[in-house]
Fold:
Amino acid sequence: MGFEHSVNNSSINNMRRSLLFFFVLGSLFLFTAHAQTYRAPRTPDGKPNLGGVWQALNEAYWDIEGHAAAPGRVLALGAADAVTPGLGVVEGGAIPYLPEAAAKKKQNFENRLTLDPEIKCYLPGVPRATYMPQPFQIIQTAKHIMVIHQYATAVRTIYMDNQTEAPADSWMGWSNGRWEGETLVVDTTGFNDKTWFDRAGNFHSDALHVVERFTATDADHLNYEVTIEDPKVFSRPWKMSLPLYRRKEKNAQILEFRCVEFVEELIYGHLKKQTSK
Amino acid sequence: MKHRVVTSIILVFLLTTFASGQTKKWTPPRMADGHPDLQGFWTNNTYTPLERPRNVSKEFYTREEALELEKKAADEETEQTVPGTVADVHYDFTQFSLDRNQSAHALNLRTSMIVDPVDGKLPPLTAEGQKRAADRAELAKRVGRWDSAQSNDLDDRCIIFQGAGPPMLPQGYNSNYQIVQTPGYVMILFEMAHDTRIIPLDARPHVSRNIRQWTGDSRGHWEGDTLVIETTNFNGKNPLRGSSENLRVVERFTRVDADTIQYKFTVEDESTWTRPWTGEIPLRKTIGPLFEHACHEGNYGLYNTLVGARLEEKKAAEEAAKRGAQAR
Structure:
């Protein structure tokens, strides 16, 4: 009652109009927000269920930066080993290397046939494992989220509780995760300096810090966003972004790609016993 | 106050004992879907051999006998790495806690893992199994262990370890597993060479017969409170005591108390053994987490041993040539 005494009718009408305006605006906002945010099915503990067999579908495994088609690394393999062209997954296009690091990247590229850890079946590191041309499976529980890659039986445990710092450096790093609404945020450190980002020699040091964000955009896609930080190699943090696709084959499953056997001749062949000539 | 606590504990103990009757049935923790929760870190670390020792005829040791045998085995393990002995250039098991007696392990009174046949021994080989065993022995005679990387054991090559299974047989050290469970899958990560088994529980058929794998192709289902995993599609390159690619393994996981999963496995291979055989070994709860065992990436052992073998051959050849020259 006191309200009507203190303001005149026209200002009440104005206020009503404003309220209506804000109501419409708010509804619109909520509507668009709803349309943008897909709500994934839930796990028994009420978290977005990201479980399944996933795979990237792009050419980042050749080179995370945009690149044209190019001859391959092995002459005898001709077109079968040729670099497939790709738009790149690095936000802004180029990786902000420090000058010395840029030179090392060039060297890596020139010697990729002998230096690329993938060729020796070494563990791929993160995020390279995610966009290799092979599937991986997420098995998700409240305490541990397992990421199991087909390539080289590489596996990551993402600790959702009992989180500790990396006890030592490793190839796949030490991952701690948390939920931010619909997004799984994974913070990984404790890397060694032996893995690469791709077959083009893009690299990092043992100061690498990776933050990955997995968000389901619909039933069969995840948006995968990665922030890379490594002050020894890059002038600033930078980002990669790519979609991950659910493997829709009936009964999709990870098979064995136990590649050590395939590289023994390459790595140890020269140390074989020479049979008498 | 202290008395009251003690009295309460005794009371609770008595109540539970009476409530559960003589059987004292333990109820496992359960998942949201009602199945037993097998998750956590486990080890099948043991001193129990697969086959019953020759001088033993009974199925079980007494507790005292078992403890005595463990102590003896532990002492031998410790002696392996006494400074100044040949073995001390290898791992110091005690220093790195790799010896079994320093790690968690269940006291097992069984005299062998094999429970069927009742003599605790592998059943006889079929004619085909005998021939295969003879062929493999013949090949092993012709090829020296250090002739090439490929002529080494699979674990020295970091391809696969015995503990990966199936069946998951304990090994000298690091017999550690992590089990993760969702409504549709069970995952078992074995520490050595980060070997992961993903077992679908949705009754899907096995993959094509053409797909042969080191750890085969596993399918799981629940039988009451027991997880049953059936595995086929082996590639035959990691023979289990002489098995072929026709190997079929059925594993049964049952939680029997807070710290133990009873692990039972039945092995069938008509082209190798005259009958199936079954083994049993407890998985005991252990502390995590598992750390990355990047075996192949750091396999200096294999590399250096091959280098050493070639150097020794060179030296031997040079000495032979020298002797030849002197003789002339």
About this structure: Confidence is low (pLDDT under 50) at residues 1-7 of chain A. The CA atoms of residues 179 and 232 of chain A lie 29 Å apart. Chain A has five helices and nine strands. The interface with chain B takes residues 43-45, 51, 121-123, 137, 139-141, 143-144, 146, 148, 153-155, 157, 159, 162, 167-168, 170-172, 194, 251, 253-256, 258, 260-261, 264-265, 267-269, 271-274 of chain A (CB under 8 Å).
